[in-house]
Amino acid sequence: MGKQKKLEKKQFEEIDLIIGRLNIVQFYKLTEEEQEKLKKSCVNKVRHPDLQEAAKRIIHDYKHQKRTNTYYKCPQCGGYHLTKFKGSKKKREVLEGMIKATIKKDKN
Ligand SMILES: [Zn+2]
């Protein structure tokens, strides 16, 4: 596939995601800057339909990639997205403790 074709394919996929998740009319009324922000915080992220699914993914990422993620409820699509945890060291330890406890519980 040529570079141009690839780019077009990516754009179509993005449009599909926007249509699937957001109000398309509202989206195109936003400024370019606002659209980019929305793409970063929603469209280009995996959407988890509920908290359970988001939690599963957080556990998975910690287990397999040693990544500490947290989630946020997305006001745009109503789902949940993950993001790298950026809080204090103490809060991180609490979060990692909960993740580890869940992993341990799952094993039994
Ligand atoms: Zn979203």
Helix-strand blueprint:
Blueprint: H1 3-21, H2 24-29, H3 32-43, H4 51-65, E1 69-73, E2 80-84, H5 89-107
Antiparallel strand pairs: 1-2
Bound molecules: zinc ion (ZN).
Low-confidence stretches: none
Oligomer: single chain
Rg, rounded, reads 17 Å
What spatial order of strands do you see in the largest sheet? Answer: 1-2
Description:
The chain has 108 residues and is mainly alpha-helical. The protein folds into two domains: 1-44, no CATH class; 46-108, no CATH class. The protein has helices at residues 3-21, 24-29, 32-43, 51-65, 89-107, and strands spanning 69-73, 80-84. A hairpin with a 6-residue loop joins strand 1 (69-73) and strand 2. The chain is elongated. Zinc ion is lined by residues 21, 42, 47, 74, 76-77, 79, 81.
Short description, anyone?
This protein has 108 residues and is mainly alpha-helical. 66% of the residues lie in helices and 9% in strands.
Which descriptors would you attach to this protein?
single chain; 108 residues; mainly alpha; 2 domains; two-stranded antiparallel ribbon; 66% helix; binds zinc ion
